[in-house]
Amino acid sequence: MNKASRLFWPTLVTPKNAVVKQTEQLSRSQKLLTELGLVKPGSNGTYQIMPIAQRAIDKCIQLVQSNMQAAGGQKISLPVLTPAQLWKKTGRLEGDISEFYMLRDRSGKQFLMSPTHEEAVTAMLASTAPISYRQLPLRLYQIGPKFRDELKSRFGLMRAKEFLMKDMYSFDVSAEEAAQSYATVTAAYERFFRQLEVPFVQVEAATGMMGGSQSHEYHFISPVGEDTLLQCSNCSYAGNVEVFGSDTDAPSACPKCQSSQLSRVRGVEVAHTFLLGDKYSKPLGATFLNTTGKPETLIMGCFGIGITRVVAAALEVLSTEQELRWPKLLAPYDVCVIGPKAGSKEQAPAERIEHELLQLTQICGAEQLLHDERKELTIGKRLLDAKRLGHPLTIVVGAKATQAEAPKLELHTSGGEKQELDVAQVLQLVDSHERHKQQLLEGTEQTDTKRSQRVGHVH
Ligand SMILES: [Zn+2]
C-alpha cells in the first residue's frame, strides 16, 4: 500500500504576491503538474518526472505494450546513438537537420541522438543474414527516449527536447502485405485511444521528412493544439491542413465528398503512422529471400506514439483549471483514503473504521491505493490535495464515520459530487470502478475481432 507520508512529492510553494517570471508558455496541465510537484522543469525544455506522474507514464507504457503485442509486435531496444553515416546513406542528412542533436565521439565519428530509428532498425536487419519470406511480416517496436532540439519548447511535456516514444517498424514482402501491417497496427492504435476515453481523431497527414506514400496522424482535440485539422461532418473525412501545404491553401469544401460542411479544429498530435515503401530498405540494402530464394527489398512501415505527450495531452483535454483529471487506466492510483486527524475526539473510533475500509485493497490491489495517513494535517487540507491530484475515488473517514447510528464515509469521485455512504456501499463502488477498468482493458480482445473483420474487408 502506498503511504502519502512517504511519498516524494515536491509541491511547488509560491509565496503570495510573488512575481513569477514566466519562462515558458504554460498549458493548464503543465501548470497543475508543476504546482502539484508531479513534474519538475529541468534545464530548458527538459523535465524531471516525479513518482506520482511516473506511475501514470508506466501505466501508459503497459497499455501501449499490450496493444503492440496484440498487433504482433516484438519488443527490442536500439541504441540512442545512431551513426550519422546511416543517415547519409538514406539522404536524410542533407535535409533540415537543425532540430537534431549531433555529436562526435573522441575519434571524430559523428552520431545523432536519435529523434527516430528508421535507419538504425533497417541497418540492423540489413546486417542480419538474409531473412526468409517465411519470417515475415516482422513488426519490431521499442519504447525509449527521443531527442529534438526544439527552438520553442512549450506546454511542458507536450513539446519537450527529450520525450518518451513508442516506435514500431514493420517489414513485409510486398506493398499489399505492408498495407495489411498498416491496417493491423492502426487498428491497435484506435483501440489504444478508445481505451483512454479521450476524444481523438485520425487524420490524413503529410509524409514530411519521413517520406513514404501514406500517412496518418492521431490527434486529441484541444485549443492548445498546434495543428489545424479539417473535419467533414457529411462524410468521414479528416485531414491535417499541412497536407495542402498551408492553412491558406486548404480547400473550403471537403476533398472527399465536396460538401461545404467542413470545420476547422485544433489538435495535439499524439501519434503518427507511415507507409514507407522501400525509402530506407533500398539504400541500406535490407532484403529478404523470396519463394524462389532470390533477395528482394523489404517493404516498410513505421508507427510512433508519443508516450509522455499522450499523458500530458490527455490531462490537458480532461482537466479543469483547478483539478487534474486522468484517463481511468492512467490515473496514478485508483483510490485515495484519508484518515482522521490526530488529536481529534473521533480519532480512535474512526481509525477502527479506517482499518476496516482498507480491506478494499482486496478489490483494487494494494498497489492502486494511496493511503493519506498524514494525520498531522486536517482532513480539509488533504482532501484539497486529493481533489487536485484527481484520484478517481477519494474516501474520507471523518466525523460522521463514528456516529453511533448509521456511520457514514464521504466518497468523492473525480469531477463528481460528494456522496455519504457506509463501508459496504463504498466497497461496492470501488468494485464497479475496477470492473470498468477491466472492461476497458478487455476491449483489447473485443476490438481485435473487429479488426480482423475490417482487415478482411480491405483485402
Ligand atoms: Zn466530406
UniProtKB/TrEMBL annotation:
<keyword id="KW-0648">Protein biosynthesis</keyword>
<dbReference type="GO" id="GO:0006433">
    <property type="term" value="P:prolyl-tRNA aminoacylation"/>
</dbReference>
<feature type="domain" description="Aminoacyl-transfer RNA synthetases class-II family profile">
    <location>
        <begin position="62"/>
        <end position="327"/>
    </location>
</feature>
<feature type="region of interest" description="Disordered">
    <location>
        <begin position="436"/>
        <end position="459"/>
    </location>
</feature>
<dbReference type="InterPro" id="IPR050062">
    <property type="entry name" value="Pro-tRNA_synthetase"/>
</dbReference>
<dbReference type="InterPro" id="IPR002316">
    <property type="entry name" value="Pro-tRNA-ligase_IIa"/>
</dbReference>
<dbReference type="InterPro" id="IPR033730">
    <property type="entry name" value="ProRS_core_prok"/>
</dbReference>
<dbReference type="Pfam" id="PF00587">
    <property type="entry name" value="tRNA-synt_2b"/>
</dbReference>
<protein>
    <recommendedName>
        <fullName>Probable proline--tRNA ligase, mitochondrial</fullName>
        <ecNumber>6.1.1.15</ecNumber>
    </recommendedName>
</protein>
<dbReference type="InterPro" id="IPR036621">
    <property type="entry name" value="Anticodon-bd_dom_sf"/>
</dbReference>
<keyword id="KW-0547">Nucleotide-binding</keyword>
<dbReference type="GO" id="GO:0004827">
    <property type="term" value="F:proline-tRNA ligase activity"/>
</dbReference>
<dbReference type="InterPro" id="IPR006195">
    <property type="entry name" value="aa-tRNA-synth_II"/>
</dbReference>
<keyword id="KW-0067">ATP-binding</keyword>
<dbReference type="InterPro" id="IPR004154">
    <property type="entry name" value="Anticodon-bd"/>
</dbReference>
<dbReference type="GO" id="GO:0005524">
    <property type="term" value="F:ATP binding"/>
</dbReference>
<dbReference type="GO" id="GO:0005739">
    <property type="term" value="C:mitochondrion"/>
</dbReference>
<keyword id="KW-0436">Ligase</keyword>
<keyword id="KW-0030">Aminoacyl-tRNA synthetase</keyword>
<dbReference type="InterPro" id="IPR045864">
    <property type="entry name" value="aa-tRNA-synth_II/BPL/LPL"/>
</dbReference>
<dbReference type="Pfam" id="PF03129">
    <property type="entry name" value="HGTP_anticodon"/>
</dbReference>
<dbReference type="InterPro" id="IPR002314">
    <property type="entry name" value="aa-tRNA-synt_IIb"/>
</dbReference>
